[in-house]
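HUMAN: You are asked to prepare a plain-text protein record giving the amino acid sequence and the C-alpha cells, both parts labelled.

ASSISTANT:
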Amino acid sequence: MAHGIEEAQIDLAYCPGAFELPYAAQRLALTGRYDAIVALGCVIRGETAHFDYVAGEAAQVGAVARETGVPVGFGVLTTDTVEQALDRAGGKAGNKGAEAMLAAIETARLARAIEENR
C-alpha cells in the first residue's frame, strides 16, 4: 500500500494515443467513480508539426480537471528522443509518471480537505 492506496483501488484504462487522453479522462471523470485520474503517455518529436498538435491536445487534461472537479495528473512526456523518454520514465531523470500519480493523490486530498472545511 503506497500513499494509503491499495492496488485494488486502481483501475487502468488504455487509450489509443496521447491525443485521445483528454476525452478518455473526461469520460472517466464523469462516471463519478474516481477521486483522481492520471494521464500517462509519451509524445516523441518527429520531423513534422504533428508533435505540437498531439502534445498540445494531450495537455488539455488540465481543462478536464477544471471542468469536472476531478484532479487529473499530467504524466505525458514530451521528448525529442526515445532515450529521453526512457530516462524520464524511471531512468536517470526519475519517474515522471510516479510524480504525476503523487500530484493527483495530493490534489484529491486537498480537494477533500477544502470540501470538509467549507
